[in-house]
Amino acid sequence: ESRAQELACRVQIDRSQLSGSEYAFLDDLQRRIEEYMNTQSWTGDRFLPFEQIACSMQIVILEAVSLSEFRARLIVTTRRPIHDTAQSTVVVRLNDPEWQFEFSRGSSLRYDLNQYNALTSVLDFYAYVMLGYDYDTFSELGGTAHFETARRIADEAKGSGDPGWSTTSGDRNRRQLIDELLAQRHQPLRRAYYRYHRQGLDRFVKDPPKARQTLLGVIETLQEVSQSVSASYPLDIFFSTKYQELAAIFAEGDLGSRAYNLLTQLDPSHSSEYNNLVQ
């Protein structure tokens, strides 16, 4: 019997910032990462082909530290279908600016959660973060087990000294993301992912006014989160992923000005996008 993998991941490596033809073998890395993400069984769950999680990894190579060591930026995106439509929604878009790893011509990627590796541990970490986010949209806090696996990977990475894993680096990083996602005070945000997708977007076709009302309720919940948590990385990720969708949803219906007041207060950096709600 055929069992699909959980992830249907497209990988793209941009090496335009490196000069010289000696880095052509990075095209091989692109294939290997894609194969790694898409052939690995990440969960014990059975997925049918149409249930696979559509995701992408964009890897921008910033610098070759040596012939086999690279600094890169990683942008991870996951989508999910919207019920009763042919459309999908971006669940999360994560931007990781500091990834350093080694890869030389012909080397292979091995999956081993108990062994830290600068290349595969980051792939594993994001695989489980993507799964966590996706599962959270289908049941309340449904992604907890996957987020906990991601935290285990971060624990394993802690002593490595590699960029992106330590809380002391001050900048927002993998460690901070996973700690905050699993913190008690962020549970209302994670529950909001379920309400937003399952009770809001998935019901949009059947009853737009009611779906909008639900989504407004979600934003009110996020306002409470933002008041109880001074600077929330996962909350910022929610808005940087969803701001255009939110602006489009409330552009119609009669909740525009209420949505505008909440959104500009919670997400001032995208105010210009929300302005059309009150025009």
What does this structure look like?
The protein has 279 residues and is α+β, with helices and mostly antiparallel strands. Helices cover 44% and strands 17% of the residues. It is built from 9 helices and 4 strands; from the N terminus they run βαβββαααααααα. It has helices at residues 26-39, 120-138, 144-157, 174-182, 187-200, 208-228, 233-250, 256-266, 271-274; strands at residues 7-14, 53-64, 69-81, 88-102. The chain has a 4-stranded mixed beta sheet. Helix 1 links the parallel strand 1 and strand 2 (53-64). Helix 2 packs antiparallel against helix 3, helix 3 (144-157) runs antiparallel to helix 4 and helix 5 packs antiparallel against helix 6. It is globular, with a radius of gyration of 20 Å.
CA-based shape: globular
Average pLDDT over all residues = 94
Residue windows where pLDDT falls under 50 for at least 5 positions: none
Q: Structural class, please?
A: alpha+beta
Per DSSP, the total helix count is 9
Terminal CA distance: 56 Å
- Measured on Cα atoms, how large is the radius of gyration? 20 Å
Q: Which bin fits the share of residues in helices?
A: 40-55%
Query: Strand order of the main beta sheet, please?
Result: 1-2-3-4
Report the oligomer: single chain
Listing every helix as H and every strand as E from the N terminus to the C terminus, the arrangement reads EHEEEHHHHHHHH
In summary, what is this structure?
With 279 residues, the protein is of the alpha+beta class.
How is the secondary structure organized here?
Blueprint: E1 7-14, H1 26-39, E2 53-64, E3 69-81, E4 88-102, H2 120-138, H3 144-157, H4 174-182, H5 187-200, H6 208-228, H7 233-250, H8 256-266, H9 271-274
Parallel strand pairs: 1-2
Antiparallel strand pairs: 2-3, 3-4
